[in-house]
Amino acid sequence: MNKQTQYSQFIKKEASRLGFLDCGIAKAEFLEKEAPRLESWLQNDYHGKMYYMENHFDKRLDPRLLVEGAKSVISLSYNYYPEEEQRKDSYQISKYAYGEDYHHVIKGKLRELLYSIQQEIGEISGRAFVDSAPVLERAWAEKAGLGWNGKHTLLIQKQQGSFFFLAELIIDLELEYDHPFPTDHCGECTRCIDACPTQAILPNSTIDGSKCISYFTIELKDNLPTEFKDSFEDWMFGCDVCQDVCPWNRFSKPHSEPLFQPKKELLDMTKKEWEEITEETFRKVFKKSAVKRTKFAGFTRNIQFLKD
């Protein structure tokens, strides 16, 4: 067994020990196929007012500009599918935000993985990324063989569905590379496109982010657009509609991450209780949660929009 194979096997074993669902490795190089897609997406203003998406165009396409001497992109997935969900007759938050902020939870695990690699192999430099830097994570996950990009543009894994986070370690070590995921298994299915309440999913496997409920309830700082008044379907933070209707998610299994367990009151709160939420309760229910990104003012703006 050569060194690259040996190192790659060690990394995958460590990733599994740390609780990652899957791990794949791709060569750090320019994402040629993604360049025209990203350019077109930006030119069509599908990023809405997420102007930060216009920054670091080159870095998004070439990990070697993010990590000096980068040789490998290690892509990892981490399950967040909950055992229990919110009551259906209440305002909803996306399942990924039920527990503690995934950025911190997964970043800690990535640092531990990098430390293990350094302990086992030697002086390796690298950086950990969890949805907070110019990295096209779904492209890298597909390239590393983790799954395929569904029509809703989220990565799907055959035995797991799509309720998982993606994360990357970009390191300056040459490894054995996995083959890109061979084929798309969505076929003729258009359930996600048909179910999207705001028609944000376009027929060519593209998201018009400027129409997505997640964009409106999390990213948009302005007033919510009145033309979508009746389309929010009780979503007050994020939206899971396209994943909930996806047939592949019948294979989703509950996660075993204690930090992602929701607080009981989050699951049980009624619409009336959400409408009357105080800043103190907001801080208590969403302590260490990704929901705090909206701040109390943004969160209550979303509820008021649904209520009126």
UniProtKB/TrEMBL annotation:
UniProt keyword annotations, A-Z: 4Fe-4S, Cobalamin, Cobalt, Cytoplasm, Iron, Iron-sulfur, Metal-binding, Oxidoreductase, Queuosine biosynthesis, tRNA processing
Cofactor note: Binds 2 [4Fe-4S] clusters per monomer.
Coiled coil location: none
Binding residue positions for tRNA: K221
Annotated residues for binding of cob(II)alamin: R60, D131, L155, L166, S214, C239, D240
Known catalytic reactions: epoxyqueuosine(34) in tRNA + AH2 = queuosine(34) in tRNA + A + H2O
Record text on subunit structure and interactions: Monomer.
Protein family membership: Belongs to the QueG family.
Name of this protein: Epoxyqueuosine reductase
Gene from which the chain derives: queG
